[in-house]
Amino acid sequence: MRVDRRILIASLIGTSVEFYDFYIYATAATLVFGPLFFPSESASAQLMASYLSIGLAFIARPLGAVVFGHFGDRLGRKSTLVASLMLMGGSTLLIAFLPTYAMVGWIAPLLLCTLRFAQGLGLGGEWGGAALLAVENAPPGWRGRFGMVPQLGAPVGFIAANGLFLLLGLALSDADFAAWGWRLPFLFSAALVGLGLWVRVKLHETPAFAKALEREAPAAVPIAELAGAHLRATLAGTFGVVACFALYYIATTFVLGYGTTALGYSRSAFLQTQLIAILFMAIGIALAGWLSDRSTPARVLAGGCVGVVLAGVLLAPMVGGGSLFVIGAWLSFALLMMGFVYGPLGAWLPALFPARVRYTGASMGFNVGGVIGGGLTPSIAQALSVSHGLSAVGAVLGAAGIASIVGLLLVPRER
Questions:
Q1: Of 118, 122, 19, 117, which is closest to residue 80 (Cα–Cα)?
Q2: pLDDT band, residue 350 (cuts 50/70/90)
Q3: pTM: predicted TM-score of the whole model, two decimal places
Q4: According to a count of CB atoms within 10 Å of the terminal CB, is the N or C end of the chain lower?
Q5: Structural domains of the chain ordered from first start
Q6: CB atoms < 10 A from the CB of 264, how many?
Q7: Virtual CA dihedral for 101, 107, 113, 118, nearest 10 degrees?
Q8: Does the pLDDT value for residue 294 go beyond 60?
Q9: CA atoms lying within 13 Å on the CB side of residue 295
């Protein structure tokens, strides 16, 4: 199992680094990017503009899926994974050196949005390759457990990102944090990316890709073959991941902003609550991987979607009540359900496609679903909470759970 351990460590470290990069942006966008990078009209308008910049990465992700999927299906998983991580990490590092709106005016949000777009390009090719690295090396009967290992990068990256922001918030004054402290997590990402690259360059190509090359030449244009021969599977995968993105960004980004503005909780108190709740996501991912091998990834995913709908029903009464303990209980339940809709994806999505277009297919389903489920969700949730209250936000979450159930029903029978 030495080779298996190295592969799993590589898939986990890579996604942990990648999600760390992604989450420090989401956290900084919620806490400081509004007043630092956007014109001062109102605090709510600045927060919505900052949330919209989060959505830019989701627009870029399908393009990244096409580009990196093309090379991943034609040249191999390993080199493509290295390139995606370099793009993601380089963009994140450069954010640390950006001037603010007070320094250079409109150039500041332009540069921020450009680097956020580049982050999305890198992420578009990252997840699919990491999932394939795990599941295409999995022994019989272990696909669910191997597939959930890269998924654990999400809570690991979240804990590292929010934990660092929490420590900075405790060590620095609000003025120092806004002036320069927020830049430190972006600088620290360089060391993590270096670690991820060091692990990945030592890997070999996956057996499934090597066997596919022995049987036939790679697809000339993987995205064209995907659209022509595997459109239904792509649609199924796309809708199947909507729930996990909507739940995550409502439970973390939106609720963090709502708790620290509308409810008036301190940043440190709310981040501590989220850090405890995220442990339930890790537990859910691990359980989902184990249950996927005992049953099927699709059944586990379906059960998680029902839990997402229930989380939507409970959002308004529990989060709107104002008690931090009750909010923490809702976050713990919601993120546990997040584990059940996210954990099985590493095994479920790649299985929808043959090896010759699997990188492109899994990446497109994951990232287009991310656009639908997560791209504008924080901004929409913020607007709905102001105009219609938290019950409307819960309705959006319930609709996302139903959308993913529809995706499961679309899976072609032969798959």
A1: 122
A2: very high
A3: 0.86
A4: N
A5: 2-409 (1.20.1250.20)
A6: 8
A7: -130
A8: yes
A9: 13
